[in-house]
Amino acid sequence: MLMRTDPFRELDRLTQQLFTGPGTWSRPTAMPMDAYRVGDEFVVEFDLPGVATDAIELDVERNVLTVKAERRPAHSGDNVEMQVSERPLGVFSRQLFLGDTLDTDHIKADYDAGVLTLRIPIAEKAKPRKIAIGGSDTGRKEINA
């Protein structure tokens, strides 16, 4: 249903580990997700706390689903003096490589309590189905040569 490996994501993770200096900690993934199948649909949930609905973009092109979100500063202005800033800000994106067995034309997206939930139906062609067996009631014919 979904490709489990993303070589670019692994490269980003390794680069982050390489350039994280001693005594510093690396930030967690900005867009963690869960993916699972329930009945005839595939469900993907992304944690996007603090992101406004209008700051989320979803695109599908050739079975690649791209989720892009922007977390903007909650407090800005001349009178704001930030004391601690641990929550990552900026634009985050993640790509999922969807299999041909998913119906990308009918993806449903909901956003509630900081969780983006995508419901992707299983394509009709991928669902199990019964196949009728045809036959002839006349039985076998013998052919004499």
UniProtKB/TrEMBL annotation:
Pfam families: HSP20. Residues 24-136 form the SHSP domain. CDD domains: ACD_sHsps-like. Belongs to the small heat shock protein (HSP20) family. It comes from Saccharothrix coeruleofusca. InterPro entries: A-crystallin/Hsp20_dom (IPR002068), HSP20-like_chaperone (IPR008978), Small_HSP (IPR031107). It comes from the Bacteria. This is SHSP domain-containing protein.
